[in-house]
Design brief:
alpha+beta, CV3147-like, 2 domains, nine-stranded mixed beta sheet, seven-stranded antiparallel beta sheet, 11 helices, 29% strand
Length: 345
């Protein structure tokens, strides 16, 4: 039976997807505001086994700077130009849609297409990740993929036979022509391909996490971690922020705990590693979530500052990433040139 969502479910879903963002992926707030204006509720979300495997599907999401997106808000059809270009190229209409990224802003992105397509509860990351070549369908080199994104003023850039490196380099560059962010789509696959090449159940997981957070706001950090089926990595105050040596765009946040432990939280656009007294406690693809101690809100990387009191949690990554060494290599900190943060799998 499909998962039936009401407009009243948006705050719960947003809270869950913020946790899965691992400090990145953009705030779900913008998508929540857009969807709250829709008159298409309720929305049915289907699991993979509820749909015909041969159903043509497209994956969508916002790419680029989510901060710029909040300054220049999307219209009601941000993915239509990219999807239309893919469908013209392939000569096939995609009647189903999944998300490229089941976290942050993009966790809710597929719901904007509910009036036109069947929503599939699957995504291509299972968390937030910064690069387009980390989309699971591209990681597994599924043949026949076509990717497209808007370039502004009605233009669209399209990559046929999409290789991971082409999608990341070419379409990332094209996004700048659209003002720093754009609606992105990836087509050329079927619902059945998602069984082996994507992460199912993200919408249900976000809903479950959001509900647990609402019910656990008053819990002690350790009990809160248990309620989220995660682990408590630390509680303390940010005392310093320093650039990470030898790794572009990476920073370390030093966190001191009441027990005098020294935590080193490493981040790029997401939190990707945590050491406790020099020993690796968690690393990507494990989802490292940082909460404001008072509000219990999930913090974005750019919201961390010296003096901020935080709770640091580890949430399990999708098993898909750890099922293959090639997949795992795409999401480990070493991918970004950061050594010494490998977590046992």
């Amino acid at each position: 039976m499909p998962l039936t969502l009401q407009a009243a479910d948006l705050p719960t879903l947003s809270r869950g997807f913020a946790l899965l963002g691992s400090g990145g992926g953009g705030s779900p707030h913008v998508a929540q505001l857009i969807l709250a204006q829709s008159d298409r509720w309720p929305i049915a979300v289907h699991s993979l086994d509820e749909l015909e495997p041969a159903t043509p599907c497209v994956a969508v999401g916002y790419i680029g700077s989510t901060l710029l997106l909040e300054e220049r808000l999307p219209d009601a059809e941000p993915f239509t130009p990219a999807i239309a270009a893919i469908e013209r190229w392939l000569g096939v209409e995609s009647s189903a849609v999944c998300s490229i990224e089941g976290a942050g802003l993009n966790g809710l992105s597929t719901l904007q297409l509910a009036p036109h397509r069947t929503i599939v509860d699957a995504d291509c990351m299972g968390r937030a990740l910064p690069d387009l070549d980390q989309i699971s369908l591209l990681v597994d080199a599924l043949p026949g993929l076509v990717a497209a994104t808007s370039t502004g003023a009605g233009g669209v850039a399209l990559v046929d036979g999409a290789r991971p490196e082409d999608v990341e380099r070419v379409l990332r560059t094209a996004t700048s022509c659209n003002g720093g962010w754009a609606g992105f789509a990836l087509g050329g696959f079927q619902v059945g391909d998602l069984v082996d090449h994507a992460i199912p159940g993200g919408m249900k997981r976000a809903q479950s996490l959001g509900r647990a957070m609402l019910a656990a706001d008053a819990l002690r950090p350790k009990d809160l971690a248990m309620a989220l089926h995660g682990s408590l990595l630390g509680v303390g105050r940010v005392v310093a922020i320093t650039p990470e040596p030898g790794a572009a765009a990476a920073h370390s946040y030093d966190v001191r705990t009441d027990g005098a432990d020294v935590l080193r939280l490493v981040a790029r656009s997401e939190f990707i590693g945590l050491l406790c007294n020099g020993v690796v406690a968690a690393a990507s693809p494990t989802i490292i979530t940082v909460l404001d101690t008072v509000s219990r809100a999930a913090l974005q990387v750019d919201e961390l500052a010296v003096g901020k009191d935080v709770i640091i949690l580890g949430l399990p990554a999708a098993a898909w990433w750890g099922s293959d060494s090639r997949r795992l290599a795409r999401v480990r900190p070493s991918r970004w040139g950061i050594a010494g943060l490998e977590e046992e799998w």
